[in-house]
């Protein structure tokens, strides 16, 4: 009697096992890169971790199909490799010989992807579901864009500097003018106007000497 | 000097101290080219071996020209137009040519600074915007153009320049570039607002800051992995390359353009010196420091490029390792970067077909090191990519772009000075216009002209200006400068000038260089340059997303109207030399024939005691 009960209990799982094959149409391949993600703090992949995976996936299926009681036994795993990659299929809780459709599994995984990742301390890149592309994070565009802020600061400083310098030079000129108009009335009439050597534009160009260069080197 | 009064003859502005003058000249000479052109040339022309033609060109071409310009400016105490008018009225066109070239170079140079500002403003973000691709419109994947090329390329060509597929498609004004250009010109204006008083103070920062940053980068770069590979690659001499005449040509042109001679800026700067100043020592100092800076800058640049090549090589290998591990289902990290070759050989022996099916990329460190770049490609593509990999990217990006900005700004001072001083000296503007207003007008005109570089095709136009305005006209001007001073003014007069200023006559080395070697070298370089340019149909690389080999750049020839503009740009500055000579000849002849017997040769207007009435009458 006992043996019969045992056989009856093992039968469903044995039956279910044959549903999972590498390349199954309703299954997905999973690949984990634990050492790449965690380095020294990587945990070892063993039966317990596999149990956690199946439980997490059952959780994802339950969350997606609200009401249907998925269990760990509904997640069937096969073809484990040392890479830590394997195939899995999901059987329906109502009938263990039928598989849940590929699309439904994909949607369930997508919905709870974040939770599945965090359960294993991995990311979208290190816990790969081959065939399920990770949804890209929506870009965060801060408004106003940061570069305009920096630009505003720089231009503000430069503009303020220009205005300050212009105002000070105008004030300086005004002050000079006032001093000059006071000092001019005291001056004498005659002045000697000197022409600096080399600044030919201040004097009058004396044409008579232009030809003499040939004779006298000056 | 006698106290001059309200007739407006101001004292010529002076440097506050010698340090300001030297820093300004060094800042003018040391520019963006020292950082992004010299290391590239060193790399493609056989590393250490390139230093030989470079140093020969410096000693026989660069230093004599530099000394000549500083000496003549200091002696005649005028800007470029005044100096050449003083030497001979027929040579006045040389000054005008210098002024035009300074203006044209200034407008595109400041556009590059606007691009540097744009990158600087964007360096204050985490993560850096050029490190990842943006999403496409319906958020399902990454932008297609970015996916095909790299995020760094996409940020430069699309988000910064918004470049059109070729130079004929002009596109529209990119508003973000317009405001960056406006801020660049505002910064130039604020430094120039009081003439050399403000420039002299600004240059304390802009000329010294790049050295500080280069040192910081040097220390950081030497600690990065792969730095030594880059340095070895840079400096390994390939002596065979010296047989190639192109190397000598490029070394001469590099020295020439690097020292910023023939712009008129150096003449202007030295004209504000006191009369008795040892310009020989100044010239040698500026020349040597310029070349030393080029060398010093190439060390961190190449250390960082070596780091970038190593990182790229490692990611290439890691990509292959991942592919192998995933396919053969090995345990993680069985294959590492170290034992990759061993594993590959083993797998090729056991299952070659499967390995072939994986289509692994062949990773070669040399190929990554060979991906050199110069100019804007180095700064905005290669270097920004390297900065992403360094920890603390924002700091390094900010430091790098501030360094580029101060390098470019100190060179801009020379360009603007080359335009302002001749205008002031020629008294072209009425006295009541203050110099602040004149500077503002020049900056505004330059800004408006530079708006063409903010169009979609702006980058192509910058390349046109860079290749053609800043090359042949300068060589021609320099040739006329040296022959003008040595042969028209006379070697004897010039020696007397130098004796007056420094107390020593120039020795045989300078004389030989000025009279024979430098003009000869300039002529050879000029002719060779023109011949080389004429042999190839001018073409340019374009960024065309519709190109079938995208992301490679598509090389297109310049259309005819652009070619006409190129010719115009080369000819316009130098046409003033013969034009002014002709004009003066004709004018002189007319004047001479009419005024010959009028003046009393013993009446020299130099010393005249005049009464106030006479002066009022004349005014």
Automatic annotation (TrEMBL), chain A:
PROSITE patterns according to UniProt: COLLECTRIN_LIKE
The keyword rRNA processing belongs to this UniProt entry's keyword annotation: no
InterPro entries attached to this UniProt entry: Collectrin, Collectrin_dom
Domain of life: Eukaryota
Keywords of the record: Cell membrane, Glycoprotein, Membrane, Phosphoprotein, Signal, Transmembrane, Transmembrane helix
Transmembrane segments: 147-171
Keyword Disulfide bond: no
Disordered: annotated span: 176-218
Annotated Pfam families: Collectrin
Annotated ranges, domain Collectrin-like: 24-218
Assigned GO CC terms: extracellular exosome; plasma membrane
A GO biological-process term: positive regulation of amino acid transport
Annotated compartments: Cell membrane
Protein name, as recorded: Collectrin, amino acid transport regulator
Biological source species: Sander lucioperca (Pike-perch)
Gene that encodes the chain: cltrn
TrEMBL record, chain B:
Membrane topology, record value: Multi-pass membrane protein
One annotated Gene Ontology cellular component of this protein: plasma membrane
GO molecular function: metal ion binding; symporter activity
Any one of the GO BP annotations: sodium ion transmembrane transport
TM stretches of this protein: 21-38, 44-68, 89-121, 173-192, 204-227, 247-272, 284-305, 395-416, 437-462, 468-488, 508-532, 561-586
Top-level taxon in the UniProt lineage: Eukaryota
Protein name listed in UniProt: Transporter
């Amino acid at each position: 009697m006992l043996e019969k009960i045992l056989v009856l209990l093992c039968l469903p799982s044995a039956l279910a096992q044959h549903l999972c094959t590498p390349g199954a149409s309703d299954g997905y391949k999973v690949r984990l890169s634990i050492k790449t993600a965690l380095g020294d703090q990587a945990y070892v992949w063993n039966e317990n971790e596999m149990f956690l995976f199946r439980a997490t996936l059952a959780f994802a299926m339950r969350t997606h199909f609200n009401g249907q009681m998925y269990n760990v036994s509904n997640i069937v795993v096969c073809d484990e490799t040392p890479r830590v990659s394997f195939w899995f299929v999901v059987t329906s809780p109502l009938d263990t010989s039928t598989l849940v459709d590929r699309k439904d599994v994909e949607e369930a995984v997508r919905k709870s992807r974040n939770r599945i990742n965090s359960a294993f301390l991995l990311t979208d890149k290190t816990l790969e579901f081959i065939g399920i592309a990770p949804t890209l994070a929506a870009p965060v565009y801060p408004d106003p864009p940061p570069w305009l802020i920096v630009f505003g600061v720089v231009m503000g400083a430069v503009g303020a500097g220009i205005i300050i310098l212009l105002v000070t030079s105008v004030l300086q000129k005004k002050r000079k003018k006032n001093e000059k108009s006071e000092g001019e009335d005291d001056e004498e009439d005659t002045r000697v106007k000197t022409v600096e050597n080399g600044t030919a534009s201040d004097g009058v160009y004396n044409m008579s000497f232009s030809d003499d260069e040939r004779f006298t080197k000056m | 000097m006698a106290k001059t009064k309200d007739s407006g003859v101001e004292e010529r502005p002076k440097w506050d101290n010698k340090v300001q003058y030297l820093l300004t000249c060094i800042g003018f000479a040391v520019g963006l080219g020292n950082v992004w052109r010299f290391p590239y040339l060193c790399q493609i022309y056989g590393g250490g071996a390139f230093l030989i033609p470079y140093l020969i060109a410096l000693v026989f071409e660069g230093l004599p020209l530099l000394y000549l310009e500083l000496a003549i400016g200091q002696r005649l105490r005028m800007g470029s137009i005044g100096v050449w008018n003083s030497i001979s009225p027929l040579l006045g066109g040389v000054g005008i040519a210098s002024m035009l070239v300074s203006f044209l170079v200034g407008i595109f140079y400041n556009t590059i600074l606007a691009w540097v500002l744009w990158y600087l403003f964007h360096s204050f973000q985490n993560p850096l915007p050029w490190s990842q691709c943006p999403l496409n419109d319906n958020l399902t994947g990454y932008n297609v153009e970015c996916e095909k090329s790299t995020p760094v390329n996409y940020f430069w060509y699309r988000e910064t320049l918004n470049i059109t597929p070729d130079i004929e498609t002009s596109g529209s004004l990119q508003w973000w570039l317009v405001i960056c250009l406006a801020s660049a010109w505002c910064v130039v204006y604020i430094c120039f607002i009081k003439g050399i008083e403000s420039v002299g103070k600004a240059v304390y920062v802009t000329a010294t800051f790049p050295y500080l940053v280069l040192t910081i980068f040097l220390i950081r770069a030497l600690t990065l992995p792969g730095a030594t590979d880059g340095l070895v690659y840079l400096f390994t001499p390939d002596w065979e390359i010296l047989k190639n005449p192109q190397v000598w040509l490029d070394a001469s042109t590099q020295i020439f353009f690097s020292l910023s001679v023939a712009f008129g800026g150096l003449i202007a700067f030295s004209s504000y010196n006191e009369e008795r100043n040892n310009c020989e020592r100044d010239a040698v100092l500026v020349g040597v420091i310029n070349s030393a800076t080029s060398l010093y800058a190439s060390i961190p640049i190449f250390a960082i490029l070596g780091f970038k090549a190593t990182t790229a090589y490692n990611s290439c290998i890691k990509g292959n390792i991942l592919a192998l591990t995933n396919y053969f289902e090995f345990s993680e990290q069985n294959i590492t970067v170290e034992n990759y070759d061993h594993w590959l050989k083993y797998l090729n022996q056991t299952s070659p077909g499967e390995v072939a099916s994986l289509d692994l990329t062949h990773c070669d460190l040399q190929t990554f090191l060979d991906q050199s770049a110069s100019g804007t490609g180095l700064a905005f593509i290669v270097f920004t990519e390297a900065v992403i990999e360094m920890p603390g990217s924002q700091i390094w990006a900010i430091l790098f772009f501030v360094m580029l900005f101060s390098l470019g700004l100190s060179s801009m001072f020379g360009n603007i000075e080359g335009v302002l001083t001749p205008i002031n000296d020629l008294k072209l503007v009425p006295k009541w216009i203050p110099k602040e207003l004149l500077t503002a007008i020049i900056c505004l005109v330059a800004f408006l002209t530079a708006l063409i570089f903010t169009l979609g095709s702006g980058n192509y136009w910058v390349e046109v200006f860079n290749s053609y305005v800043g090359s042949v006209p300068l060589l021609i001007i320099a040739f006329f400068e040296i022959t003008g001073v040595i042969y028209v003014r006379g070697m004897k007069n010039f020696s007397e000038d130098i004796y007056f200023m420094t107390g020593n006559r120039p020795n045989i080395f300078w004389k030989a260089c000025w009279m024979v070697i430098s003009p000869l070298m300039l002529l050879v370089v000029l002719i060779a340059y023109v011949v080389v340019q004429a042999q190839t149909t001018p073409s340019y690389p374009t960024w065309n997303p519709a190109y079938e080999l995208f992301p490679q750049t598509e090389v297109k020839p310049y259309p005819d109207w652009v070619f006409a503009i190129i010719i115009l740009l080369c000819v316009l500055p130098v046409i003033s030399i013969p034009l002014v000579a002709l004009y003066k000849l004709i004018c002189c002849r007319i004047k001479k024939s009419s005024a010959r017997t009028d003046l009393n040769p013993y009446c020299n207007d130099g010393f005249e005691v005049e009464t106030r009435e006479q002066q009022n009458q004349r005014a």
